Amino acid sequence: MVTELLGGVREADLTGRVRDTLVLTAEERRWGRRRVTTTGGRTLALALPTGTLLMPGAILHVGTNWFVVVECAAESCLAVMPASHAEALRVAFEVGNRHFTLALDGERLLVPDDPGMDIMLTRLGVRFERVRTVFIPIGRGHRHDR
Prior knowledge:
By secondary structure, the protein is an alpha+beta fold. The chain has three helices and nine strands; from the N terminus they run αββββββαββαβ. A four-stranded antiparallel sheet has the order 7-8-6-9, covered by helices on one side. A three-stranded mixed sheet has the order 1-5-4, with no helix packed on it. It has a two-stranded antiparallel sheet with strand order 2-3.
């Protein structure tokens, strides 16, 4: 059972151990209490403190011969290509106003691929496309519908 994130694990501590991964979406990285299965087929029970956010690269467990690291799953997102700084701010405001999260990806803003976001971006007249990519939101955000 994983009850806390491991801090201070050095690369030397992992030498000789098999690397296993837990690949999660942005939403799944917010769920701290559940059973999960790693890519190597290992089952872990997560009982992390409320509010824990699993970040990419976090080491969840170090066993005798193996360890588990959090990785981000590629997920469906809307990639917004704002025409100006003002347009980027407007999109960020509208996304936050609807209690959705936003991520930065170079010159693009990423938002969850959600019908509400599609409608909003279309109404704003901003250029966007659907992509599959890693989504690492800025801040923690929250949704009222979940």
